[in-house]
Amino acid sequence: MSLYNANITTRLIDPVFNQANFRTEFRLHPDTVYLTNWRLINVGVDGEDSEYHGVLGVESCIKNIYLYDGNQLLDQIIDAPRVRTFQNLTDFP
Prior knowledge:
The chain is an alpha+beta fold. It has one helix and four strands, in the order E-E-E-E-H.
């Protein structure tokens, strides 16, 4: 059985709060199922001295990730670059 069919659509979710170099907040639609293969687009570094991390690339721009349900913290990644570097170097998905 294939997971993908005509009923699955790709949607862009715009942030409800965005302050450069500080925080971006997204609100997900209630009563909606989200798959785990999300894509984050339009993330980058600008400036003369900006360089991407050798192992992570543009992922090094993300510092922390928090998942909330209202005010209830569901999950978090405190040091995202360190976690992703370990995963990339050990081929751990």
